[in-house]
Write a structure and sequence with these properties.
Number of helices: 7
Order of helices and strands: EHEHHEEEEEEEEHEHEEEEEEHH
Number of strands: 17
Helix content: 25-40%
Largest sheet: 7 strands, mixed
Shape: globular
Oligomer: single chain
Number of domains: 1
CATH class: Alpha Beta
Strand content: 25-35%
Distance between the termini: 37 Å
C-alpha cells in the first residue's frame, strides 16, 4: 500500500500551559513511536480557559509554545501541527495554527477565519471578544500530502475547504475544541461531508472532558478517508490515534467519481 501514517492528539487542556505541554509531549511522542510522520494537536492545546485566561496567555510566534513545537518536531523528525494558540501580534490577537517541518522550521501559519460567536444552550461563546479573524486560506506541503489548514468552527463553512482544494489540498487538518452540545449531532456528519465533497483525507484532533468552567468538549477526534470512512476515533478520553492514509485510494476515489472536475466556479464563484 502506498500510504503515509498520521496521528491526531486528543487533550483536556486546562489553564496551565506547563501541564498542557507535558501532556502534549507525551502524546505526540506516543504517536511518533506508533509510526506517525505527521501529528496534529487540537485547538488551544497549550492553554484553554476563560476569556481573561486566553488573553493573558497570548504569545507571539517566537514564544515558549512555538519554541516547544519546533523543538518537538525536530527531535522526533516529524511534521507537527501545533494545533492552535492565542497569538499576540502587536495589539491584535488571533487563534493561530503553526505547522513545523521535521527540521524544526515553521513552514505555515494559519489564523482562524470564522469566529465562534454563538449562543446555543451549552455552547455560548463570543470568540470575537478575544481574537480577530484571519484573512487567508492556507495550504502547505506535508509530503506526500498537500495539507489545508483550518480550525474548529471553520468546519461549518465549506467554501474555505473548496478554496483549499483549488490550491491542491489532498488532506485537511482541523484542530478543534468542539462543544459536546453541538458535537453530538454535528461533528461527525460535518467532517464526513468535508471529506466526501472535497475527496480528501481529514484529520480532526479535538479537546475532550468537562472543564471547571465553560462548555464540555465533545472528544471523538477523527481521521477520515476521501470516501468519508472513519479510519480512527479517539472516543472521549485523552489519548492519540493513528491511521494509514492510502494514497492509491485517494486517486481511485477521484478517478471513479470525478466530482472535483465537474465544479463550475465561473457560475457560483
Amino acid at each position: 500500500m502506498n500510504a503515509v501514517r498520521v496521528g491526531a492528539i486528543q487533550m483536556d487542556s486546562r489553564p496551565d500551559r506547563d501541564r498542557n505541554l507535558v501532556t502534549a509531549a507525551r502524546l505526540v511522542g506516543a504517536a511518533a513511536r506508533d509510526g506517525a510522520t505527521f501529528v496534529a494537536l487540537p485547538e488551544m492545546f497549550n492553554l484553554l480557559g476563560d476569556r481573561a485566561t486566553l488573553r493573558a496567555g497570548a504569545e507571539d510566534l517566537d514564544g515558549p509554545t512555538q519554541r516547544w513545537a519546533a523543538d518537538t518536531a525536530r527531535e522526533l523528525g516529524i511534521h507537527l501541527l501545533a494545533g492552535s494558540m492565542i497569538e499576540a501580534a502587536g495589539a491584535r490577537r488571533f487563534n493561530t495554527s503553526c505547522l513545523y517541518a521535521p527540521d524544526g522550521r515553521r513552514i505555515a501559519t494559519y489564523r482562524k477565519l470564522h469566529l465562534f460567536d454563538v449562543s446555543v444552550p451549552g455552547a455560548e461563546f463570543s470568540e470575537s471578544s478575544t481574537v480577530s479573524p484571519g484573512d487567508a486560506v492556507v495550504v502547505a506541503p506535508v509530503p506526500p500530502l498537500t495539507l489545508g489548514l483550518a480550525i474548529c468552527y471553520d468546519l461549518r463553512f465549506p467554501e474555505e475547504f473548496r478554496a483549499q482544494g483549488r490550491l491542491g489540498a489532498t488532506a485537511i487538518a482541523l484542530p478543534s475544541a468542539f462543544t459536546a452540545a453541538t458535537g453530538q449531532d454535528h461533528w461527525e456528519p460535518l467532517l464526513r461531508a468535508r471529506a466526501i465533497e472535497n475527496q480528501c483525507f481529514v484529520l480532526a484532533p479535538d479537546q475532550c472532558g468537562v472543564p471547571a468552567a465553560g462548555p464540555a468538549w465533545h472528544g471523538h477526534s477523527l481521521i477520515l478517508d476521501p470516501w468519508g470512512t472513519v479510519l480512527a476515533d479517539a472516543g472521549t478520553e485523552v489519548g492519540h490515534i493513528v491511521a494509514d492514509l492510502d494514497l492509491d485510494r485517494l486517486g481511485e476515489v477521484r478517478r471513479r467519481l470525478p466530482a472535483l472536475d465537474h465544479t463550475r466556479p465561473e457560475i457560483y464563484g
